[in-house]
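BUG: 3D viewer hangs when loading the predicted structure for this chain

Environment: internal workstation, default settings.
Expected: structure renders.
Actual: progress bar stalls at 90%.

Input used:
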Amino acid sequence: MKFKCILTGMLFASLAFGAAWEQSASVQNVKAVLSSDKALIVGDNALVLTVKQQNMPIENAVVEVKAFMPAMPGMPAMESKSKAVAQGHGVYKTSLNLDMGGTWQIHVFVTTKEGKKYRLKTSLSL
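Structure tokens produced before the viewer hung:
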């Protein structure tokens, strides 16, 4: 009985603490942290992006995210694009639809209100 209680406790702890996902990307002096409250899945995923330049939030930027998987033998290339919505203080929300498991390339495009453009690259695996 004691073993079952310990096992059940470990299961709940892993669900509570192991579910979140986070990945960062940077270029020059711009950093984007992509995160999700839940583990990423095949299908729709809600993402939060925090975008900073020299540790200061980038406000009023146009932020777009593209996830893609190149074509492979017997499989066409796949892509999901979305425009993020500003939440204030350098935080932007968006969602991506990832059609299948595997390694996805992620590009975050940031255009500041001054017109400077940045492309940040990272990847994720489902």
